Amino acid sequence: MAETQYVIVGGGLAAVSAIEGIRELDKTGPITLLTAERELPYHRPPLSKSFLAGKGGVEAVRVHEAAWYPENKVRVRLNQVAKSVHISRQSVALESDERVEYDKLLLATGSAAKKLNAPGVDVPGVMYLRTLQDCYALRAAIKPGVRVVSVGGGFVGMEVAATARHMGAQVTVVEVGPSLYRGFASPDLSAFFQRVLESQGIAVHTGTRVARFRAQDGKLAAVLADDGEQIPADLAVVGVGAEPNTQWLASSGFSIDRGGLIVNLRLETPGKDVWAAGDIARFPDPVTKQPRRLEHWDNALAQGKQAGRNMAGAGEPYLHQSAFFSDIFDITINVLGDTENVDSVEVRGDMDPASPHFTALYAKASRLAGAVTVNLNTADRAPELDDLQRHIRERTIPPVA
Q1: What predicted TM-score, i.e. pTM, was given to this entire model?
Q2: How far is 81 from 202, CA to CA, in rounded Å?
């Protein structure tokens, strides 16, 4: 009997996690990994934190060492850009016009940094952070005294701002919305994080749109706000969101909604023997039962593993509850469930920026929908997070301790 030929398009965590899932059930079927990256798969969270700060070499961020792939009968093909999928022929077309045939296919092409539409955005010194190469360039540019403007008050923008400040840069955060971390949907939390940044010497401008990047002598000199203010800058890091890499699939017959590739509970696309996982997958959330697309490390890890197992015949539903984390300075943030589509937010604990320790509970129709925790004690973190996940699953509000 012929072995199953697995093909995975994408070179991030979801792709590697899928390989692990396949190998749990199929030890020998050959796997081909097609990735547009120049590097073996790596973890992205350190790119805005420890790796950006210069801690460790590339081996510290790789998902697996190079020898792991041949040991697991995986053929890795770097610098391979896919341009379409032919479902009936069961093949992937590359930009080189080569066609790669498959028996089972996983689409896990991740996201790209959203580009900012502002005059001067191509000036040397205006940068994005998405890939390892982006991080190398930023790491070389951020030095003590360098004036850095972080454009965007979300996770990437906040993490880059904190890391750059730790590296000795002068840092300003510019956010177009009225508050930081808009996804938290809580003025109290946004105000808390703004106080944290300001206590570390970071200037924060909310409700401020970038009107233009001004150059002088061929490099960035200032970021001009829409109110006329000029913010001196040697470097601007744009972190205004990400866009799923699904454009290349537009003519392949898949269902795409709000940029996400629609999958069912088993992460299957409507195409026969084709699955999707990670940033590009718009999946039925196991708690809310509503379609959702997530761009976080935990989601890529869990979805990739489940998709891989299902490619190898498991046929299991995806039941993992979403969770992700972030770090700024010495503050650890954990986010569970839905923190946007809610009616109320209740904060329990101490929001003093000098020594914070609190949990924000997000309720909808008097039922727990999500939670944000800040600086849980290490010993208590897993049990408390598990308990919050249980309350989210059961739609109950945790009692006051």
Answers
A1: 0.95
A2: 40
